[in-house]
Design goal:
mainly beta, Methylamine Dehydrogenase, Chain H, 5-stranded antiparallel β-sheet, 4-stranded antiparallel β-sheet, 1 helix, globular
Length: 456
C-alpha cells in the first residue's frame, strides 16, 4: 500500500528554453518518437524522445503546454498530493492531446511526424477539475471527425494510518469530508466525464456536454477508454483509499463503469458498474481486443483480496461482473498494481506496479480470458533497475512491432525504462534513461502523466 512515500508533484517551469528540437543522433535511424508529460507544479511540459530501431532512446526535447501541471507536495500528508491515471496523452492523426491537471485544460499540439517536433495550437478548458485521462473515437462515417472524452478527477480523498502503532488517523481533505453525510457523498459537476468534438483536419477541440458526474465516495475518473469496437465507454474510479494501515476500515470501493456509446450522436446510455468491498484504487484498465472484457489494475486492497491486483471484468450489456482475479509480483506483498497495457496483437497483458517497480506478464486468449504465464502457480514478472526506490513506476507503452516496452519512473527517479520483449512476450530490463528536464530533486518533485508514441 502507499505508506510513507512522499507521493507528490512539483515544478518544471524552468525548462521553457528547451523547445528547439535536438538533432538526431548520428548513425542510428530514428524509428519513432515517444512522449510523456512532466506534470509539475508550474507550467507543464511534454517531453519528446527520439526512439531508434534498436529500441534505445536518444535526444530529448521539452515543449511547454502553457498551462499548469498538477503537482502539490503539501497536499495529503504522506501521500503529498499524489494522484494517478492512465491515458493522459493521446495521439490523434497528426495531433497530440495532453491534460494539464493543475490548469484544468487540455493542450493540443500539432505533431510533425517527420521529426517529432510539437507546435502548440492552444489550450481548451477541460470543463471540470483536474483532467487526468483522454479517450477518443472516430465519429460514425468520418475520417477526420472524432469524439473525445476527458475524465476530470477533481481530487482523490483518502484516509491514512489509524491502527495500533501506526500513528493517529489522518483524513484528507479533512474529517468532515469523510463523516456520515459528509462531502464524499456529494455529486460534483466538475468531477465528471466531458464530451468534446475533435477535427483532425484543423486541430480544433470543441466542448460538447457533460456525459456523467460522480460522488466522492467511489471517486472521480482515473481512466477513460473506448472498447475496441467503439460501442462502449469504460471509466475507472479510485474510490476512497485507506493506506498506511493494516486495518483499512475507512476504505470505500472503487467502481468501474461501462456505458453504451453511440458514435453517431456521442450519447451514452445503460450506465452500469462493478464494485466490490475490499478493492479500492482502481487506476488503469485495458479493453480486450475481441470481447467486452476489461482488465483492471487495483492497488488499495484488504488482506483477503491480495489476489485481486488484477481483476478481469466482463460486460454483457446489462451488468459488469468479475470473472477472474490475479495477484501481481511475487504475492508476498501488495505491490500496488496501477497500470495496464496490451501487446499489439492483444495476446499479452502487462500490469505495472508502483510500489514494487515491476511488470507482471499474463496471457490473453481470443475469448478475453486471462492466464498466468507458464505452468507454475506464481505470476511471472520482470523488475526495473536494481536499487530503484519503492514507489516509482507508472505508465507503459509498447512499440507497434511488439519488441519494446517502455515504462515511466514517474515519481522518484524521473526516468523512462526500456524492456526488450522476447518472441514469447517476456520482458527483460535493458535501459534506463534520465529525463533531462526533470532537474529538481526529491520524491514527488514531478509525477509524470501519460506515455504515448508513434512510428516515423
Amino acid at each position: 500500500m502507499k505508506t510513507s512515500l512522499a507521493l507528490a508533484l512539483l515544478a518544471v517551469g524552468c525548462v521553457a528554453g528547451l523547445a528547439t528540437p535536438a538533432p538526431s543522433s548520428a548513425g542510428k535511424p530514428v524509428a519513432g518518437y515517444l512522449y510523456t508529460s512532466l506534470n509539475g507544479e508550474d507550467t507543464n511540459h511534454v517531453i519528446a524522445f527520439e526512439r531508434y530501431s534498436d529500441g534505445t532512446l536518444g535526444s530529448q526535447t521539452a515543449y511547454p503546454t502553457g498551462s499548469k501541471g498538477g503537482a502539490n507536495r503539501n497536499a495529503g500528508g504522506d501521500a503529498a498530493g499524489d494522484f494517478d491515471s492512465q491515458g493522459a496523452i493521446q495521439l490523434i492523426d497528426d495531433y497530440l492531446l495532453v491534460v494539464n491537471a493543475g490548469g484544468n485544460t487540455v493542450t493540443v499540439f500539432d505533431v510533425n511526424k517527420r521529426n517529432g517536433e510539437l507546435t502548440r495550437k492552444g489550450n481548451v478548458d477541460s470543463r471540470g477539475t483536474r483532467p487526468v485521462s483522454i479517450a477518443y473515437l472516430p465519429k460514425a462515417g468520418s475520417k477526420t471527425q472524432y469524439w473525445v472524452v476527458v475524465g476530470n478527477q477533481w481530487n482523490n480523498p483518502n484516509v491514512q494510518k489509524g491502527g495500533p502503532g501506526e500513528g493517529a488517523i489522518e483524513m484528507y481533505p479533512d474529517a468532515a469530508f469523510h463523516a456520515k453525510g459528509g462531502g464524499h457523498q456529494q455529486v460534483l459537476d466538475d468531477r465528471n466525464i466531458h464530451l468534446f468534438s475533435f477535427d483532425s483536419s484543423t486541430g480544433s477541440l470543441t466542448p460538447e456536454r457533460s456525459l456523467d458526474t460522480y460522488s466522492g465516495t467511489n471517486g472521480g475518473p482515473a481512466t477513460v477508454a473506448f472498447s475496441a469496437d467503439g460501442k462502449k465507454l469504460g471509466v475507472s474510479t479510485w474510490g476512497i483509499a485507506h493506506f498506511g494501515t493494516a486495518t483499512p476500515t475507512h476504505q470505500k470501493p472503487s467502481r468501474v463503469y461501462v456505458y453504451d456509446f453511440d458514435a453517431r450522436t456521442g450519447s451514452t446510455s445503460g450506465r452500469r458498474y462493478f464494485e466490490e468491498d475490499g478493492i479500492s484504487g482502481s487506476i488503469g484498465f485495458s479493453w480486450d481486443r475481441n470481447t467486452s472484457t476489461l482488465f483492471v489494475s487495483n492497488f488499495n486492497l484488504v488482506e483477503s483480496k491480495r489476489d485481486h491486483s488484477l481483476t478481469v471484468l466482463r460486460d454483457d450489456g446489462r451488468s459488469v461482473r468479475k470473472v477472474a482475479a490475479f495477484g501481481t509480483g511475487d504475492g508476498s506483498d501488495i505491490d500496488e498494481a496501477c497500470w495496464t497495457t496490451l501487446s499489439p496483437d492483444g495476446t499479452k497483458l502487462y500490469v505495472s506496479s508502483f510500489g514494487g517497480n515491476l511488470i507482471s506478464e499474463f496471457d490473453v486468449d481470443r475469448s478475453g480470458n486471462v492466464h498466468k504465464v507458464g505452468r507454475g502457480s506464481e505470476t511471472v514478472y520482470a523488475s526495473r533497475k536494481e536499487g530503484t526506490p519503492a514507489g516509482d513506476t507508472k505508465d507503459m507503452y509498447i512499440t507497434s512491432d511488439g519488441r519494446h516496452l517502455y515504462v515511466l519512473g514517474a515519481y522518484q527517479t524521473f526516468t523512462v525504462s526500456r524492456f526488450a520483449l522476447s518472441n514469447t512476450g517476456a520482458p527483460t530490463f535493458t535501459q534506463e534513461v534520465k529525463v533531462e528536464a526533470a532537474n529538481r530533486m526529491g520524491a514527488g518533485s514531478y509525477n509524470f502523466l501519460g506515455l504515448a508514441g508513434y512510428d516515423s
